[in-house]
């Protein structure tokens, strides 16, 4: 259960505000006005603190509860602007479009790629096949994974395919994330962007039915993750 102690507003106010922000991509200014219309006076800085603090905690619980995914992956990056500069959002989905993992990085290089594959494998187990674009960093990252697998003697390596059209399902999935972030009027700090994006990805997983809902609405499922 996530601890809400020390916060001056009840969970019944905080969770809808966080969910509304990460699911529908309004600006903090708009969210402040929406809450004010409902008799809740909260400034933009407080709303930002709520998202940065609680979105990652809820995302961790979502990762632990998401449904099993397929062993055929699609991996690519998209761009997110932070403080006026482009950063890289690494994302992976399975062949059915179900979210596997995601990671915001300042750089697109071998170090970042290896870090992403390491965390994706840790949380989803080893894939049989990974489809990537023509990125040399992504290819080198997967080759490094296969070298480790050969030395550990598991007898299993990952098939790597560089076929652009097979990644169309991931390109379509990128668009949802980009549509949400585009209306947020930019990120001012990397840590804030990373925390917000994990919230967006969590809401997206709920939307895709990856978190068992048992008939609950999207918001109810989000709230249940908070305990």
Automatic annotation (TrEMBL):
One of its GO terms (molecular function) is DNA binding. The keyword Zinc does not apply. The keyword Ribonucleoprotein does not apply. Residues 64-226 form the Integrase catalytic domain. Keywords: DNA recombination, DNA-binding, Transposition. GO terms for biological process: DNA integration; DNA recombination; transposition. Involved in the transposition of the insertion sequence. PANTHER family: BLL1675 PROTEIN (PTHR35528:SF3). This is IS6 family transposase. It comes from Tritonibacter litoralis. The lineage of its organism: Bacteria, Pseudomonadati, Pseudomonadota, Alphaproteobacteria, Rhodobacterales.
């Amino acid at each position: 259960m996530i601890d809400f102690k020390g916060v001056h507003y009840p969970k019944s106010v905080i969770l809808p505000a966080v969910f509304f922000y990460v699911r529908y991509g309004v600006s903090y200014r708009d969210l402040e006005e929406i809450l004010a219309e409902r008799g809740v006076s909260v400034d933009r800085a407080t709303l930002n603190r709520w998202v940065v603090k609680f979105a990652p905690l809820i995302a961790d619980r979502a990762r632990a509860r998401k449904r099993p995914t397929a062993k055929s992956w699609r991996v690519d990056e998209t761009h997110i602007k932070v403080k006026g500069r482009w950063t890289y959002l690494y994302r992976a989905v399975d062949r059915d479009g179900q979210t596997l993992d995601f990671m915001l990085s300042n750089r697109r290089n071998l170090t970042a790629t290896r870090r992403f594959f390491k965390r994706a494998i840790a949380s989803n187990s080893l894939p049989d096949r990974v489809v990537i674009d023509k990125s040399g960093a992504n290819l080198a990252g997967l080759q490094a994974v296969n070298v480790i697998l050969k030395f550990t003697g598991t007898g299993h390596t990952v098939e790597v395919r560089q076929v652009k059209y097979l990644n169309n399902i991931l390109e379509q999935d990128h668009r949802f994330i980009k549509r949400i972030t585009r209306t947020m009027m930019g990120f001012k700090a990397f840590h804030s962007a990373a925390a917000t994006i994990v919230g967006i990805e969590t809401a997206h997983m709920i939307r895709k039915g990856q978190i068992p809902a048992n008939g609950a609405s999207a918001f109810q499922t989000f709230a249940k993750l908070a305990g």
